[in-house]
TrEMBL record:
UniProt GO BP: phosphorelay signal transduction system; positive regulation of DNA-templated transcription
Superkingdom of origin: Eukaryota
Organism listed in the record: Tripterygium wilfordii (Thunder God vine)
Keyword field contains Transcription regulation: yes
Span of domain Response regulatory: 19-132
Localization in the cell: Nucleus
Gene Ontology CC terms: nucleus
Descriptive protein name: Two-component response regulator-like APRR2
HTH myb-type domain span: 314-368
Listed Pfam families: Myb_DNA-binding, Response_reg
Assembly notes: Binds the target DNA as a monomer.
Chief location of this protein within or outside the cell: nucleus
One Gene Ontology molecular-function label: transcription cis-regulatory region binding
Keywords on record: DNA-binding, Nucleus, Transcription, Transcription regulation, Two-component regulatory system
Amino acid sequence: MVCTASDLSAWKDFPKGLRVLLLDEDSSSATETKSKLEAMDYIVFSFCNENEALSAISSKEESFQLAIVEVSTSNGNGSFKFLEAAKDFPTIMTSNTQCLSTMMKCMALGAVEFLQKPLSDDKLKNIWQHVVHKAFNTKGRIISESLKPVKQSVVSVLQLQLDNGERAEKAGVSPANKNELERSAGSDKYPAPSTPQLKQVGRFLDDEDFQDHTNSLMKTDSGEHDGETKSVETTGGNTMVEETLIVRELQSLGEIAIKEEIDLADGGNNEGNLCPHPQNKDNLDISRGGTEGESPSKATHSVCRIKANGKKMKVDWTPELHRKFLQAVEQLGIDQAIPSRIVELMKAEGLTRHNVASHLQKFRKQRRHILPKDDDRRWPHQKEQMQRNYCSYKPIMAFPAYHSNPALPAGPVYHVWGAPNTRPAPVPMWGGYPPWPWKPYPGMHADAWGCPVMPPPHTACPSLPQQNTSGFSNAGAVVGYGMPENYFEHHPAEEIVDKVVKEAISKPWLPLPLGLKPPSAEFVLAELSRQGISTIPPNISDCNS
DNA sequence: GGTCAAATAT
DNA sequence: CATATTTGAC
């Protein structure tokens, strides 16, 4: 993204106020680092032994957004202990040594970067990127309280800039920078936090949820045959598409989607769009001079849903948001899935119980339509039937079709049987749960809503009756969210089944069925580290000489 | 609060 | 005209 005037004002003091926990036993280097950071407007809390640091993060984790931890021969595993404990926010490891094993271990344990000492201004100046990166790439896990404000701030500013850009355009200014953002969004697949350019903010994509976003991007890119550009109004021509593209990406990052109404009519008075701004500043500066005891993040969390004219903005139930919704519903279990609880679980700022209630209503209605009366077993009215053991309740699938969604927590997926939940299992309670067809394809009627799209996962309920009761004619065309769209577009359902089965056979070591996405390297690493990274040298002393 | 249904917005 | 979301009543 080209640095425009609005950039300068919006991001001017971006890292300002970010709280950095510094753990370094070497007091002189600690002091030096601290002063460098402070010169850059970071707020530094310095610790010289890991126990203090540990207790600091465990008691007030929300007070920090970033940690810099020194690892040395003398502090042994202390730094690693900290690193593991501080998984919720980005931790940069630093050391005098250049031992590859050490670096490797740091990375395996979740460090976001390894910096060789001494820490120069250059090395330090962009560490904020890790904060932003983390804030946007914590899907499926719990996003740390301290990172939420950052995320919101960034989203706000970016959205604001979109608005500004829109206005500038109307004034005849070339929107070159937006094109730039778009381009980078589509092609820059690999996050490289060390690269300072702001354009990275346009695409916070990790392997984990890469597919999703790319899908939507590519679809939008490809023009009008797009299933997701629901909010694209053709009125404005291409610029609107770009606008929407970017906004949508932000939206799909888990924020409540707010439809900014761009009033083409009353060109000048869009001051209301400024509303995200104050929040942004607040969030970043709130910690200034504050004491460690405060938790800045708790302060302001509500998304500004008020338009200039005071009207509330509509909640846009993006696939992403709906996915949260579904997760919540599944997690709660059918008889507990009530608006208030769903709202809690969704953890989507700005979303009200009413919003959810409404969505739930629609959701239920749709289901009723899809699963005709005879087996409406899953809704509370039929208490007698609730206990019946329907196949869709059984955790047969380790990777239920619907869950091929990468945004879901990786944790329980491979442990369906031992899932901690009180419910039977984190399994879709609505067997073969259909994707939510947001504007599937042009011309397709929206009552395709509940159409089961996935071929019934082979091992799963072969007898599930309603799988076929509703119109299936479009099955080939409707594509589930979170699935690689092309996959379906080019493979008839039977081929898919075949493919999945073959894969299952060829990889017997994996749980069945495999789902549609093989475990990524990332997943394996994560799993390894979760289990204590036995493959990595237990200590570093052997390489420090 | 939860649900349902009418009212609105898109 | 059909849908999606919000509003309001029960």
